[in-house]
């Protein structure tokens, strides 16, 4: 199986700038957004590596599914493995990814069979723009039992389609050009602490 990579930038925008950002994105992308509602569950190895630096090498897995507003119980799970971000001086977050649809059976039981235990879960709800069929711009609120951000600010994620390693530099350049087009409204940044995000529920 060929390893593919996702390149991404993230930002945070206040409620008062939402309308300006939407107008800018509609102009840049040439299209209106479509709704986005997703459920994600994280899992850790049932048998963990002993505490210490080596624990960081444990593989964490997630399953995610779109949520249908007219049937909140329906799920179509995809298994996700998100690797550690590259650390070699990039200004864009780049990390290996693996996605595989779970087409039959009980996804939660499947994770148990793989030797994994429940760690966390949350939902993301918002809108998605696409840009030149290579970038996905997601505006979302993250929530658990209570809103992630009670002030209703937006988290913005700009992610490339999964690409092979020899395409990473070109797609990083596209991402930075897109970042430049949002200057004055939204500052995007690469998130080195995504590694910590993968482990915060597990350390």
Describe this structure in words.
With 203 residues, the protein is of the alpha+beta class. It has one domain (4-46, 59-195): Hypothetical Protein Pfu-838710-001. It is 19% helix and 36% strand. The protein has helices spanning 18-29, 107-113, 168-181, 194-199; strands spanning 4-13, 34-45, 61-66, 78-82, 93-101, 116-131, 135-143, 154-160. A hairpin with a 3-residue loop joins strand 6 (116-131) and strand 7. The longest helix is centred in the last third of the chain and has 14 residues, at 168-181.
One letter per element, helices H and strands E, the order comes to: EHEEEEHEEEHH
Taking the alpha carbons of the first and last residues, their distance comes to: 30 Å
Helix tally equals 4
The percentage helix is 10-25%
CATH superfamily assignment?
Answer: Hypothetical Protein Pfu-838710-001
What's the overall average pLDDT, rounded?
A: 85
In the residues, how many domains can be counted? 1
Low-confidence stretches: 193-203
- Write out the strand line-up for the largest beta sheet, numbering strands in chain order: 1-5-4-3-2-6-7-8
> Structural class per helix/strand content?
alpha+beta
**Might you state the CATH topology name?**
Hypothetical Protein Pfu-838710-001
């Amino acid at each position: 199986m060929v390893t593919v990579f996702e390149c991404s930038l993230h930002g945070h925008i206040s409620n008062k700038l939402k309308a300006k950002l939407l107008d800018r994105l509609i102009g840049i992308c040439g299209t209106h957004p479509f709704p986005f509602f997703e459920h994600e569950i994280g899992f850790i190895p049932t048998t963990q590596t002993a505490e210490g630096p080596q624990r960081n090498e444990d593989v964490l897995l997630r399953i995610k599914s779109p949520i249908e507003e007219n049937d909140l119980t329906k799920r179509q799970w995809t298994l996700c493995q998100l690797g550690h971000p590259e650390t070699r001086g990039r200004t864009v977050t780049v990390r290996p990814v693996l996605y595989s649809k779970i087409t039959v059976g009980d996804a939660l039981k499947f994770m148990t069979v793989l030797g994994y235990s429940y760690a966390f879960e949350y939902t993301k709800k918002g809108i998605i723009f696409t840009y030149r069929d290579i970038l996905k711009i997601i505006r979302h609120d993250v929530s658990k039992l209570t809103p992630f951000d009670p002030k209703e600010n937006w988290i913005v994620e700009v992610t490339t389609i999964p690409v092979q390693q020899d395409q990473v530099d070109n797609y990083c350049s596209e991402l930075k050009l897109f970042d430049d087009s949002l200057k004055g409204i939204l500052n995007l940044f690469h998130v080195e602490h995504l590694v910590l995000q993968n482990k915060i529920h597990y350390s």
